[in-house]
Amino acid sequence: MPEIYTFIDYYGNETDLLLEHWRVMSVDGLGMSDVGHLGSRYAQQDGETYLGTRLKPRIITMSFQLVYDTESELWDARDGLLRIMQHFAHGFHLRIALPNGDTRQIDLRFQSGLTLPRDLSQNLTQQVCVMQCIAHEPLLYDPDPEVYSYGEAEIVQTPGVIANVGSWVAYPIITVTGPLIQPWLENTTTGEVLDFSAFDIAGGDVVTIDLTPGHKSITSVAAGNILPYLTTDSDLATWHLDPLDNWIQFWGAGATYDTLIEFSFNALYIGI
Q: How far apart are CA 148 and CA 213, in angstroms?
């Protein structure tokens, strides 16, 4: 059985592109994303100095056919498709259920091509659709987040392992429920540290460390922004999980049965 594609609109409504009425004919753009190489050039330099590589936005081209019993049903389907695509700013999700049981999802915005031409000499209850969409964030992801929890027993200098099963680095959201005195944690696989030991987390307080690119923050329910408590040698900007087993070292005193450290992230994939 081939993979199943589903459109999910801004409001969460799902439209499956199944064989009965929405027949997928071709999909292109789900493999490796294009990349851009960053460089700099000094005076009298031939060529340039390589600085890094970034993924470019991804273009996905889809063609499919709407097939219905009556012209009225077909025109209702055309209207439904256009309603999904008209959310230009917020876009929509494309979810792919793979034959091996895995699920991948990507966030798209309509870009071009959905002109919906009509050939009146052909079957009037069918409509061929071709369109291009853009994923400004080119990575696919598993829509079901990975969650790892560690309680009092693990917060005694005992390393824990987090398996990032994706093919790309992940930036988790970490929540720490107190009490916990002088907390810090290190990804010993990457050598990156988050040290906010100058802030003691009281019982009942929850500290959220959001490592999402563009949204880096550390907040406490009780104290608000506690980013100033993070040491200057911490790695807030880069702290991540490599796509392999990551060994995490915890430290903090005064942990009880109520203490909990939780990591949540969606596995990311460079392509399928």
A: 20
Token readout for 151 is 């309680």
**pLDDT above 70 (res 4):** yes
- CATH number for region 4-141: 2.40.30.200
Q: Which CATH number fits domain 146-269: 2.40.160.60, 1.10.10.10, 1.10.3210.10, 2.60.120.860?
A: 2.60.120.860
pTM of the predicted protein model: 0.90
Nearest Cα to Cα of residue 60 among 136, 141, 132, 138: 132
Which of residues 159 and 104 earns the better pLDDT score? Answer: 104
CA distance 73 to 253: 65
The 10 Å Cβ neighbour count of residue 163 is 13
Closest CA to 197 of 207, 209, 182: 182
- Strand order of the β-sheet with 146-150 is 146-150, 260-265, 173-177, 206-210, 217-220, 224-225
